[in-house]
Amino acid sequence: LDIPLGPEIGQCCGGRVKIDIALVDEELREAIPGRIEWEDAQRPHVYLFGGGHVGTALAATLSLLPLHVVVVETRADALGDMPDGVETRLTSVPEEVVRDAPAGSAFIVLTHDHALDFLIVGEALARADSAYVGMIGSKTKRETLRRWYLNEAGGDEATLSRLVCPIGGADVKDKRPAVIAALVAAEVVRELS
């Protein structure tokens, strides 16, 4: 079926819906899980480093989108309230997750520890194939990271310019986790499109 979404079916939004109907034989039934797994693997990967209030809100927001969302934490208790469909990883070395991520991944850094944030950002910026690298923070935190990145991590201004900090922009002053999550989700989707 190929149905235009228009006035003839009571819709005014435009677009189309295509539906394919097929009889499922044993061979197709066995192939379906592999196809679902393959399709899921094709989704852009978004890695959230930190499962605090903003990380949990952001995981919930991103879980509604066609993304593969992974929350990475060093603290087991911070992974307990993640929404369904979000992968969680407990590790003492989160920067290794950055190294192993697929090309085109997005990295959002919002841990409980500035030094850990800096290490993760440094790894993410080292990847020229990152779709998005963002860090929660203030002007002061960004400047502290800048000094560390240029003086101690061997980075350069051109690479550092790829960092989005603060995530979600500075125009909206509302700092509630759900608001930050909505703003960051829009940034990430724009970069992954």
Describe the protein.
The chain is α/β, with parallel strands linked by helices and 193 residues long. It is built from seven helices and eight strands; from the N terminus they run ββαβαββαβαβααβα. The protein has helices spanning 26-42, 53-62, 95-100, 114-126, 139-151, 157-160, 177-192; strands at 2-4, 16-18, 45-49, 68-73, 87-90, 106-109, 132-135, 163-164. Strands 5-4-3-6-7-8 form a six-stranded parallel β-sheet, sandwiched between helices. The protein has a two-stranded antiparallel ribbon with strand order 1-2. α2 crosses α7. It is globular, with a radius of gyration of 20 Å.
SS-based structural class?
alpha/beta
Portion in strands: 15-25%
Coarse shape: globular
The run of helices and strands is EEHEHEEHEHEHHEH
Radius of gyration: 20 Å
Strand order of the largest sheet: 5-4-3-6-7-8
Mean pLDDT equals 92
What is the β-strand count? 8
The total of helices stands at 7
Distance between the termini: 27 Å
- State the helicity in percent bands: 40-55%
- Unreliable stretches (pLDDT < 50, length at least 5) are none
Largest sheet: 6 strands, parallel
List the helices and strands and how they pair.
Blueprint: E1 2-4, E2 16-18, H1 26-42, E3 45-49, H2 53-62, E4 68-73, E5 87-90, H3 95-100, E6 106-109, H4 114-126, E7 132-135, H5 139-151, H6 157-160, E8 163-164, H7 177-192
Q: What's the short version?
A:
This protein is of the alpha/beta class and 193 residues long. Helices cover 41% and strands 16% of the residues.
